[in-house]
Specification:
By secondary structure, this protein is an alpha+beta fold. The chain has twelve helices and 16 strands. Bound molecules: zinc ion.
Length: 412
C-alpha cells in the first residue's frame, strides 16, 4: 500500500528545503536581505506561483502572492509570517506560517475554488530584527508605518538598510507604495509556532490567539551601603542585594497572584560584587507582560509601591527606570470566533490563549484587524535548533486555516 502524503507532510518537506537556505553551513541563520534570504524568497515565490498566485517582491523585500476572489480586485485577507531567522535558529518559527498559508491557497486552487474576497500570502523578511537595530520593517511597510529614518541604520559591517535593500534588488524609493489602503484589506492572519508550553500541556495541536501581549521593561537600581562582611553587625547593615532579593520575590508573588500577567527578573548584578563586601548597590531587570494593558499598568504600580516599602524598611534607596513599553495588540473578536469555529469543525477543542512573544501582527494592527493560530511545539522551545513540531500538527493547522478561509464572513 502506498501511503499518500498529507498537506502536513508536504509542508514538512518544504520546511526542510527552506532550512537549506542559510548563511552558515550546518546551522540555520538567515538574516534580512542576505543572499540566503534572497534564495529563500525566490523559492517561496515559486511555491506561491505553483499554488495559483500572482507574485512579486515588494520594495522592502516582502514576497507577496495574490489569489484573486470570485472577481479580480476584491479586498484581500492577508495571511503571512516571516522567513528571516535568528542565528542558529529552528526550522519552524516564521517559516511554518508562510508554508501553511501557501498550502491553504493551494488547497483552494486545486479545486478551482474562488472566495468572495482575495487572499494574499505575505512572507515578511524582518521580524527577528537581528541584522539591523530596527525590526518589523516588512510588516511596517505594508501597514504604512515604515519610518524612512530606518533606511540609514547600519548592520554590524556598516552596511545601511538602504544599501542592503539595493543589493537585494529592491528600490527603497518604492517603499511608500508597499503600503496598503485599509479599504483593500479585510484582516491579517498568521499561523505560528506557540513558542510556549501551553498547547503541549493541554494536549492540543493548535490554539487560537486572543492578543499579542503588551510588555513593560524597567531597570531597577538599589542603593545601600558597602561594609566589611565580618565587622558590620546584621542590624546595622543596609544591604542592597538582600533588598533586591526581596524585590525579586515580590515580583514573583505579584505575578502568581494576578491572573493574566507574567513577570520576570532575568538579570541581577551586585556591586561591588566581592565575597567579603556587603553590597552597596544592586541592579536588576523587570519584564512584565499581559494581554491587558490595564492589568499590566496596575501591576507595575503595585510593584513600585512594594519596592518603595522594601527600600524604606531596609533603609536603602530604589530607583525604577522605564526602558520599554509596548501596548498589547488585541486580536479581532470576529476573526478569533471564526478561527475557533474552524478548529471545532476539525474536531479540535478551541483553546484561546495570549501570545507571550511579539509578531508581525504588532505592526499589522495599525492597518487592519489581526488574528493568529498557534501550533504546538515540543517543550515550548524556539529560537533554537531543537525547535520541533510534528507533521500531524502542521496538517491540523493547514486544515483549520483552509476551513477558516472557506467559511470566513467579514462583519457587515
Ligand atoms: Zn516568529
Amino acid at each position: 500500500m502506498i501511503a499518500t502524503k498529507t498537506a502536513g507532510d508536504l509542508a514538512f518537506d518544504r520546511l526542510e528545503a527552506l532550512a537549506g537556505f542559510t548563511e552558515e553551513p550546518g546551522r540555520l541563520t538567515r538574516l534580512y536581505l542576505t543572499p540566503a534570504h534572497k534564495a529563500a524568497a525566490l523559492q517561496v515565490l515559486a511555491w506561491m506561483r505553483e499554488a495559483g498566485m500572482k507574485t512579486r517582491i515588494d520594495a522592502v523585500g516582502n514576497v507577496v502572492g495574490r489569489y484573486e476572489g470570485v472577481e479580480p480586485g476584491l479586498p484581500a485577507l492577508l495571511i503571512g509570517s516571516h522567513i528571516d531567522t535568528v542565528r542558529n535558529a529552528g526550522k519552524y518559527d516564521g517559516n511554518l506560517g508562510v508554508v501553511a498559508a501557501i498550502s491553504a491557497v493551494a488547497a483552494l486552487h486545486r479545486r478551482f475554488e474562488r472566495l468572495p474576497f482575495a487572499v494574499e500570502v505575505l512572507a515578511f523578511g524582518d521580524e527577528e530584527g537581528v541584522r539591523f537595530p530596527v525590526t518589523l520593517n516588512g510588516s511596517r511597510a505594508v501597514a504604512g508605518t515604515f519610518d524612512p529614518a530606518a533606511l540609514d541604520v547600519r548592520d554590524a559591517d556598516g552596511v545601511t538598510l538602504r544599501e542592503a535593500l539595493k543589493q537585494f534588488g529592491c528600490d527603497p524609493a518604492g517603499i511608500p507604495d508597499a503600503a496598503r489602503r485599509p479599504g483593500d484589506v479585510l484582516g491579517y492572519v498568521e499561523v505560528h509556532i506557540e513558542q510556549g508550553p501551553v498547547l503541549e500541556d493541554e494536549d492540543l495541536p493548535v490554539g487560537i490567539v486572543t492578543a499579542i501581549n503588551g510588555a513593560s521593561r524597567f531597570g531597577i537600581e538599589v542603593t545601600g551601603v558597602a561594609g566589611h562582611a565580618g565587622t558590620v553587625p546584621m542590624h546595622l547593615r543596609r544591604d542592597a542585594l538582600a533588598a533586591a532579593a526581596e524585590m525579586v520575590l515580590a515580583v514573583e508573588r505579584e505575578a502568581k497572584d494576578t491572573s493574566g500577567i507574567v513577570a520576570t527578573v532575568g538579570m541581577m548584578e551586585a556591586l561591588p560584587g566581592a565575597v567579603n563586601v556587603i553590597a552597596s548597590g544592586a541592579k536588576l531587570s523587570l519584564d512584565l507582560r499581559s494581554s491587558s494593558d490595564d492589568l499590566r499598568r496596575e501591576a507595575v504600580a503595585r510593584l513600585k509601591r512594594q519596592f518603595d516599602g522594601i527600600a524604606e524598611r531596609r533603609s536603602v534607596g530604589v530607583q525604577v527606570t522605564p526602558r520599554y513599553d509596548e501596548p498589547a495588540a488585541t486580536c479581532a473578536p470576529w476573526l478569533v470566533d471564526q478561527m475557533a469555529a474552524a478548529a471545532e469543525r476539525s474536531g479540535i477543542r478551541p483553546l484561546r490563549l495570549p501570545s507571550g512573544a511579539g509578531h508581525d501582527g504588532l505592526a499589522m494592527i495599525a492597518l487592519c484587524p489581526i488574528a493568529m493560530l498557534f501550533v504546538r511545539c515540543a517543550g515550548g522551545v524556539s529560537h533554537n535548533p531543537a525547535e520541533a513540531i510534528t507533521a500531524q500538527d502542521a496538517d491540523a493547522a493547514i486544515r483549520v486555516l483552509t476551513d477558516f478561509l472557506r467559511h470566513l464572513t467579514p462583519p457587515q
